[in-house]
Amino acid sequence: MSEASIWNALKRKTTLSDEAIAGLMGNLWAESNCESCRLQGDFTGDRRVSKAYEASVAAGDLSAYGFAHDAKGWGLAQWTYFTRKANLLSYCRSIGVEIGNEEAQIDYLLAEFQNEFLSSWRKLLACTDIYEAARIVCMEYERPDVNNVEARADYGRTIYKKFHDGAEEPEPDPGPAEPTRDEIIAQIYQLLEKLR
To answer: Residues 4, 174: contact at Cβ < 8 Å?
Structure first.
């Protein structure tokens, strides 16, 4: 779970230029810091709120309806709109993974682009400019309240410098250790208390 694993997955799964991938990832960085298990507003260092949220969905304590309609951004793209979140949840369940699974979210993002945002996807496929790719994703796919395209393009430029062909690609970061069962249960109870 890292920038490197997202970059490598997008290189493997698409024919996007490195510039288009960087612009897309600049948006993911702006939305979630490129973290698939990230709940909007979770600024805890260990993402315990996000992990508790994911666990509450997995346990059924937060229903599919509740997940889709709580208006909280989730995952790499901070999906918020209820149909998009419902579809993400359905997809994850159909392949037997948790809602924070990075690979599933990348596949869902690509499917969403190629089916629901086909015109934007075609523009991205032809794009060889980081700023333009960041603009397309921001204005046509993410559509945030604040259209901070320049910041997203800057994130994309930083990512491009790290991973562009010829640059050294680091091994994917294994991320923090998974919480224990007792920690997950405690997190679920904490989340439920906050939701009351």
So the answer is: no
* Calculated CA dihedral for residues 67, 72, 77, 82, nearest 10 degrees: 50
DSSP 8-state secondary structure symbol assigned to residue 145: S
pLDDT digits (tens, 9 = 90+) for 169-195: 444 444 455 556 566 666 665 666 666
Q: Beta-strand (E) ranges in 84-134?
A: none
Quick: pLDDT tens for 23-62: 999 999 999 999 999 999 999 999 999 999 999 999 999 9
Give the count of beta carbons closer than 10 Å to the beta carbon of residue 187. 20
Q: How far apart are the first and last CA of the chain?
A: 32
CATH of the domain at 153: 1.10.530.10
For residue 59, how many other CB atoms are within 10 A of its CB? 11
Domains: count for the chain: 1
Measured distance CA(191)–CA(28) in Å, rounded = 25
Q: DSSP for 156-178?
A: HHHHHHHHSTTS--PPPP--SPP
The domain in which residue 176 lies consists of 3-195
